[in-house]
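S1.2 Input.
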Amino acid sequence: MKENAMTSPAIPSPKGEMQLENCPFCGAAGSLLPSSDHSTAWEGGCSNDDCPIGPNVWELTEAEAIAAWNRRSPSSRAEVRREALEEAAKVAEQLAGTLMHLQPTINSLVQIGSHLETCRVIATAIRSLSQGE
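S1.3 Output.
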């Protein structure tokens, strides 16, 4: 997130206003600042520039940005982990589907490879025979 951003723990301020919660992905403090893209908007995000997810929200008011950031994703690490594993499982299923679709081609290539190896063995045997004569 950008420098000079306001960061605060996930507790109400003394005035009763809601503060930003920590990032559910890396645990760093949330940050809030006026949006650089829109002069009247606010941007909430993770204060950790190395966050693997780097989630951000944009809203028209500071209060809306805080509310959006605080509800943008599950706050428990176990839930985040479960969602990440579910996404990984979906990717693995898609890869399996692609490989099944390519299986006839792969089998053909394996057969070609087997035939190539047979040809190499025959060539070696022929060279051996020719050198022995």
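S1.4 Remarks. Residues 25 and 82 are 12 Å apart (CA to CA).
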